[in-house]
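G., the chain you wanted modeled:
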Amino acid sequence: MAPGHAPAPTPARIALVAFPGVRAFDVSVITEVWGVDRTDRGAPPFDLRRVAADPAPVPLRGGLSLTPDRTLAWLTRADLIVVPGLDDHLTPAPAPVLEALRRAHARSTPIAALCGGAFTLAQAGLLDDRRAVTHWNLTDLLRTHHPRVTVVPDALFLHDDNIWTSAGTAAGIDLCLHLVRTTHGAEAAAAIARSMVTAPFRTGTQAQFIEHPTAHTDRDADTLAAVRDYALTHLAEPHTVAGLAARAGMSPRSFARHFQATTGTTPLRWLITQRIAAAQKLLERTDLALPEVARRTGFGSEITMRQHFATHLATSPRDYRLAFQHTLDQQEVDMASLHP
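Predicted structure as tokens:
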């Protein structure tokens, strides 16, 4: 190691569990989030491994295949295990895979499943008596084949007992970015999202299915987008549904209804999640006092901000800053070593 250079941070170890029948799209999402080196753009390093029961290539739909580079034994080293969805949602996973997932959960290793990957976790018994989500069109199928699972019909992703599940397609991207965000901070997730040209943050409680049936609805969506932009650039100001509705030229009731139809969440819930995201960035990147962070992000007081952090992030602003300031300091030292 060169004099004066600190050692690079240890990459987080991510295991992509593969077996015949997993979706190529979900494999690509996992690889895009954790398998691309973006340390030059401010993202942390990751060590993504393709894990399977044996080293034989895993066939994927469309004439593709995935070559494993580790066996299931590597799961004992993983910091996070991610299970892709399935082309046929009732595809039985190999018994060694199910047993390895059970052992990983018993070790308290976080496990995430994208879309129909919830069926794999259910086969392993990991969702028994727990809440889970999958694609809205598969909720009845999951309930029927796994009646002990409490299927949540309308959410993008959720967490129960160190197990994450998500809805279909884009929600898998949302969950992966959320897992980066909760482990490495908002800036790390934003760096990856910018590279992928996707939104960096959607709350897991947002509705899965949003209709845009008419040109009139599209015009409303444009109006509401302008109101959201205004709120984001004036987060420090107090906002009410009535005030935002007036800016949109709607009654409060009509505004709230159209807002939820367009975004999948309520105006106040959306505003809270945006304020939390803004506060996270300030806590990560500045030394501003907590009352000033609360003022700039519209919480009004440190007490209110602390209450929302406890509810939504299960931590306090002070603890969040301590955790992620250390992570970012490590990343900046590593960047300096790359560009002396």
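The two ends are 13 Å apart (CA to CA).

Shout if anything looks off.
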